[in-house]
């Protein structure tokens, strides 16, 4: 079933054009597309643009503090400095360019509030954050109204980047698990006609993609397994995240899943 995707990449290579992977966070592109990236990284120009690549100083919500403990991190800013270094190192090893757009991760994204709420927020940080909880907000796919203006700014930035690198295809997550940052990144890919969605690993081990979304966009599921044996080691190179994501140390080398819209599925 990878023939359709292979033909798409061969077309881009023949035309001397690039690929743009949109990654919600500083590991998602490799988590979900590591095999594809390792296969194509030195054959054609590839850029991975990570959207939510920054943290913010305290005070932090309980959800953010829990995440920092899972990563054995003493501070969010230092952790994200290290995460960016990891990402640069892994992608450079694949022959892939990186762009960090510098938007704050949902765990740390704050609202614009007045002085009174700012003072309260020093004691109860949840009141000044766009996503006060993980389980009831971030993980439910409830995109904050405050992020709509942000999305428009990002659309312009991504369009400019795609034009600059002459991207033949833009790849973005399909949004398995409904994490708000993944849904926002999916929206950034939707405006590009020549787009492909990738399944969000490892969230797709526990959740299925939204069938309504797949049907509405007439997406065709395909798999890719070339180079899949290399993906576990690539994931382990994200040292700050690997243990929290895979506590047993077992990273399955299962085929990657991609979703093609009708413009390509029909042509193939």
Q: What is the structure about, briefly put?
A:
With 268 residues, this protein is an alpha/beta fold.
Mean pLDDT: 94
The structural domain count equals 1
CATH fold-level label: Rossmann fold
CATH superfamily: LmbE-like
Query: Which blocks of ≥5 consecutive residues have pLDDT under 50?
Result: none
Series of H and E elements = HEHEHHEHHEHEHEHHEH
**Rg over alpha carbons:** 18 Å
Extended strand count: 7
Number of helices: 11
Oligomer: single chain
Rounded to the nearest angstrom, the distance between the terminal CA atoms is 11 Å
Helical proportion, percent range: 40-55%
Structural class: alpha/beta
**Which strand order does the major sheet show?**
3-2-1-4-5-7-6
Reported for the largest beta sheet, the result is:
7 strands, mixed
* Known CATH architecture: 3-Layer(aba) Sandwich
Top CATH class: Alpha Beta
Describe this structure in words.
This protein is of the alpha/beta class. It has a single domain (3-57, 72-110, 144-265), classed as 3-Layer(aba) Sandwich (Rossmann fold). 42% of the residues lie in helices and 13% in strands. It has eleven helices and seven strands. It has helices at residues 3-15, 28-40, 62-70, 76-93, 115-121, 147-164, 180-190, 211-216, 231-236, 239-245, 262-265; strands spanning 18-23, 46-50, 97-100, 167-173, 195-198, 220-224, 256-260. Strands 3-2-1-4-5-7-6 form a seven-stranded mixed sheet, with helices on both faces. The N and C termini lie close together (11 Å).
